[in-house]
Amino acid sequence: MKFSGKPGGRCINLAHSLQAPATMRYKGPVSNHYLCALRDLIWEQARPVEKFGHQPRLAALTEILGAGLDYDRDVVLAAAWLHDLGVFIGNRPENPAALSHWDHVAYACAHAPEILRNVDYPANKIPAVLEAIRQHQPGDEPATIEAVILRDADILEQLGAVGMLRTVSKVGRDTRFRSFTDAVAVLRRNLQDLPAQLRLDASRHLAEPRIRILEAFLAAVEDEAGPNLF
Length: 230
Ligand SMILES: [Fe+2]
Hints:
With about 230 residues, the chain is mostly helical. Helices cover about 55% and strands about 0% of the residues.
């Protein structure tokens, strides 16, 4: 896979870079020059296309979680845009056996340095970006404040209404999600395991309504479908 960074940080107009309906064009705020290029690259890479939204939502969450904390925003935002490179179709294997052993974090860490160099990202911050990506999953022990912020934001994205959308959208498209039952099992596991993994008070506060809506959704699924969900 050859990634096309945008040297010089020129903000590519997405309207010219792909044939997407206006409602699908991302228009969120992008400040630093490299963020523009990373956004464009992820817009091209994120497949299925709805996976794109995880990155800007995650970036926005890190801004909220990081408010008042002493952390490197460059590191967190770059890691937020690049951490899931390895989960996109085209970058990960489709074969179920290969997918079950796929290390998407290793993939992201292998490609992120070249991508960041190509977008004129500060070279001295690349190791910290990789460290944050390496420690972003719930089972990880984040060793830096940047990794804590990214990991908490990523956990929040697996709860609430967005967590439901992200999970259910995989049914029939991801070989690990054959039916609603698989999606509901993942959501139940998320609800049971993830809230306790959050490290920041701000994250726990943001998680409260997400937990409530996920609980209500799972209870409604049980009420409506019982043993016939499939
Ligand atoms: Fe993620």
